């Protein structure tokens, strides 16, 4: 009985066909998810870094550190707007090609899923409040200002758990029957926390490189303005802030990326043995992707070290290129992981890929029916 | 019932969708589309007449457009997906498949819209001199993209009521360019701007102390009123004439108002808008606060009513002729009646009704077929079984359920076997008397005992 309920929990696919080639949609979901998660990473990492730096600036009474924090907060509120709209495509695609799994796992944590709306509206409004009150709340209300930022960041640190529970739960249809809502799922399903830490580290790393990128551009802009004979307000302070931000960016990315070697391994270990083995020799593509990304991570660390020593265009480009390749590898592997988990279920519960036209009554039939109805009425 | 069901016992599941959707409509129409047009036209007028104060008003408005659209607007927009995937998964799942490419295009339009809005807001002070013209052009492009989002989504919304030839061809373009598409897009376009004027006149009246600036702002708004008040009326009538008669008949019913009150309120509302538009045109320096307050709330009430009615008049369908309001596919009715509803419900732990599980089976049927609109003890008395079923017994109710869709044409038919229908009736009678936490196992046993005694 139990076994039967477990296997029957996967519904038939929707009668209407998936409106395109599933393979093509898989490419689209990987690409659009990478774009989305890149901005999500920057949003979360920058918002936490901003609060941390603001506190550091307060305790060291250093205005320059406060400026770094302010800059991070400014960018967070812009990045989050782009992150949200970029998320539409991957959400659309996962709903269309994994309907049977994704809608089931969504509804198992339905109320937590709905709470996303309130949580994110609150977090986003707080991010604006944090940013737009920065100057006004200097002085006496600085502590309150930090509290505002910290509240927003905590919400942003919590939200990924809801998404992770959903996309992990969809991989385990046989566990659905025992699921008791969101908080229970946090410890019920495997992989959740390993994924979470892998993701949070990536958020800091991505924010680090973005911080570096932005301040490098800002430095160049100052130089350009000076060349054109214009003056730059607070030039010395600005230059110092950019320099410090760049250093912070590199250090953050370096150390969080180094830690990924541990977090990534922990995540790999949390997979079912059959799936783990696919990455460790049994499947050439997956093994290649994994080895490639480990190797590239080491290469990235090397270039980051070099960039920290000399800020040259070559070093910077090397970091960016390695980072983008790793990002693509990670997005791709993440998708292949889902496919490995769902493969057998999809075979047993096929998707609707062929359009089946409904049987339509002809006009004559309808008239006939109406006559019958009229007769019935009499 | 393909997916697990979440229940909101007091609010009612439908209400959860309605709350998110109405907030989203107000923000998307009134702020993202309408307010953007207003702010860009204030910028235009400011640049043309060298009126820096007017440009400053546009700048302040743009800050609020940015804040509101990228928080409440964006999250209630995605929120409609989040909420429908929880409450109406079959419906949204089907719509995503029909309109995948429309939504995919919408994605690109949204990204462009947000990027343009960010550029527009953050370059007010940095683009000076000749670059101000570029800033204005960004604003115009932003307005166009705002409207494009509506152009795409309206195809989807209108198809739910009038899918036209789609039910036969399943073709995307048949669904998108459905019979009410053009009238409803025209209607929404005018609504968006009129709603924006209605929403922003109150804060402008209260917060802008400089009478001259206020007058100049209201003069610009008057131009839009002259266009949108008749526009809303004409396209509204056009839209109304293009919807199916079955739906038209349900309009007044779906507001829950008696006909005379409905008529009176709408004539009064219309009169209020005419007074508002005329006053703003004739005496822009002296628009009374009370009038702006009245318009603010009336416009919200109207838009809420419009969306509520539009969603309601589709009954018994949620996608006309294809999917019933409770997620049952019209084409599967016979299959369910023959094989049983529960047997075909992946999310139901019970597959067959027995004497022991009758009440629990009834609960699954309630979750599958009633919960989209009804509650047991919810606040809307018309939809709550606790109130509606007073004095009924199981046999009468079961008989009534079998002809429900005929006596009440806006109700979907019950689907399932006779045993399932009896189980649903038994469950509904039980919980309407004893509440949602009634012991369902005990109930069945008692009944068995009764049967044995007999």
TrEMBL record, chain B:
Gene3D superfamilies: Cytochrome c-like domain (1.10.760.10). Keywords: Heme, Iron, Membrane, Metal-binding, Transmembrane, Transmembrane helix. It holds the Pfam family Cytochrome_CBB3. One of its GO terms (molecular function) is heme binding. The chain crosses the membrane at residues 15-40, 61-83, 98-122, 134-157, 185-208, 220-241, 261-282, 289-306. InterPro entries: Cyt_c-like_dom, Cyt_c-like_dom_sf. The keyword Heme applies. Residues 357-432 form the Cytochrome c domain. The keyword Secreted does not apply. This is C-type cytochrome. It comes from Savagea serpentis.
């Amino acid at each position: 009985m139990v076994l039967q309920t477990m296997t029957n929990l996967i519904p038939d696919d929707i009668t209407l066909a998936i409106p395109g080639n599933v393979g093509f949609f898989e490419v689209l979901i990987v690409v659009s998810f990478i774009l989305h998660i890149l901005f999500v990473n920057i949003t979360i990492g920058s918002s936490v870094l901003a609060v941390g730096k603001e506190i550091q600036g307060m305790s060291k009474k250093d205005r320059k550190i406060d400026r770094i924090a302010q800059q991070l907060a400014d960018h967070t509120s812009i990045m989050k707007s782009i992150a949200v709209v970029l998320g539409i495509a991957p959400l659309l695609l996962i709903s269309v090609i994994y309907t049977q799994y994704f809608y089931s796992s969504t509804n198992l944590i339905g109320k937590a899923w709905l709470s996303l709306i309130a949580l994110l509206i609150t977090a986003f409004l707080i991010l604006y409040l944090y940013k737009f009150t920065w100057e006004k709340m200097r002085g006496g209300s600085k502590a309150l200002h930090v509290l505002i930022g910290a509240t927003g960041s905590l919400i942003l640190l919590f939200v990924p758990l809801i998404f992770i529970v959903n996309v992990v739960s969809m991989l385990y249809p046989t566990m659905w029957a025992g699921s008791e809502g969101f908080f229970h799922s946090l410890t019920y399903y495997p992989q959740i926390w390993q994924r979470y830490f892998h993701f949070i580290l990536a958020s800091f790393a991505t924010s680090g490189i973005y911080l570096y990128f932005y301040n490098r551009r800002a430095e160049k802009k100052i130089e350009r303005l000076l060349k054109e004979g214009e003056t730059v307000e607070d030039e010395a302070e600005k230059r110092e802030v950019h320099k410090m931000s760049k250093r912070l960016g590199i250090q953050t990315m370096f150390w969080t990326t180094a830690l990924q070697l541990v977090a990534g391994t922990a995540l790999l270990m949390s997979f079912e043995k059959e799936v783990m083995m696919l990455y460790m020799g049994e499947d050439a593509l997956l093994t290649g992707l994994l080895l490639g990304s480990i190797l590239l991570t080491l290469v990235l660390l090397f270039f980051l070290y070099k960039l920290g020593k000399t800020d040259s265009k070559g070093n910077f480009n090397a970091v960016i290129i390695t980072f983008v390749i790793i990002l693509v590898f990670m997005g791709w592997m993440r998708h292949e992981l889902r496919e490995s988990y769902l493969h057998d279920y999809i075979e047993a519960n096929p998707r609707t890929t062929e359009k089946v036209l409904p049987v339509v009554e002809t006009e004559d039939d309808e008239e006939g029916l109406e006559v019958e109805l009229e007769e019935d009425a009499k | 019932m393909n997916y697990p069901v979440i229940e909101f016992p007091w609010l009612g599941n439908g209400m959860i969708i309605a709350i998110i959707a109405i907030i989203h409509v107000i923000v998307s129409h009134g702020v993202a589309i309408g307010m953007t047009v207003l702010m860009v036209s204030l910028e235009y007028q400011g640049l043309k007449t060298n009126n820096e104060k007017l440009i400053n008003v546009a700048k302040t408005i743009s800050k609020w457009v940015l804040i509101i659209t990228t928080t409440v607007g964006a999250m209630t927009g995605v929120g409609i997906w989040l909420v429908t995937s929880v409450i109406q998964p079959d419906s949204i799942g089907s719509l995503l498949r029909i309109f995948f490419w429309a939504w995919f295009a919408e994605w690109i339009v949204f990204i462009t819209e947000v990027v343009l809005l960010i550029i527009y807001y953050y370059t007010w002070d940095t683009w000076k001199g000749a670059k101000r013209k570029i800033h204005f052009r960004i604003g115009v492009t932003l307005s166009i993209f705002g409207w494009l989002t509506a152009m795409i989504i309206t195809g989807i919304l209108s198809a739910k009521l009038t899918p036209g030839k789609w039910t036969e061809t399943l073709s995307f373009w048949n669904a998108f360019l459905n019979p009410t598409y053009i009238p409803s897009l025209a209607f929404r376009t005018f609504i968006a701007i009129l709603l924006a004027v209605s929403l922003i006149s109150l804060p402008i009246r209260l917060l802008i102390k400089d009478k001259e600036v206020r007058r100049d702002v209201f003069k610009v708004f008057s131009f839009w009123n002259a266009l949108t008040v008749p526009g809303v009326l004409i396209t509204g009538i056009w839209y109304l004439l293009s919807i199916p008669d079955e739906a038209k008949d349900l309009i007044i019913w779906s507001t829950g108002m008696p006909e005379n009150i409905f008529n009176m309120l709408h004539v009064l509302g219309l009169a209020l808008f005419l007074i508002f538009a005329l006053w703003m045109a004739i005496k822009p320096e002296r628009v009374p606060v009370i009038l702006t307050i009245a318009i603010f709330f009336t416009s919200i009430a109207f838009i809420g009513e419009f969306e509520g009615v539009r969603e309601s008049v589709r009954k018994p369908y949620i996608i006309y002729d294809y999917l019933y309001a409770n997620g049952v596919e019209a084409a599967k009715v016979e299959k369910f009646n023959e094989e049983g509803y529960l047997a075909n419900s992946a999310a139901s732990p019970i597959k067959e009704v027995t004497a022991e599980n009758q009440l629990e089976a009834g609960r699954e049927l309630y979750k599958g077929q009633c919960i989209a609109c009804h509650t047991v003890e919810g606040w809307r008395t018309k939809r709550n079984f606790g109130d509606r079923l007073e004095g009924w017994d199981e046999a009468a109710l079961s008989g009534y359920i079998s002809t429900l869709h005929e006596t009440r044409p806006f109700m979907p038919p019950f689907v399932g076997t006779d045993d399932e229908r009896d189980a649903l009736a038994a469950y509904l009678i039980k919980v309407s008397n004893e509440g949602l936490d009634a012991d369902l196992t005990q109930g069945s046993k008692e009944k068995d005992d009764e049967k044995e005694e007999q």
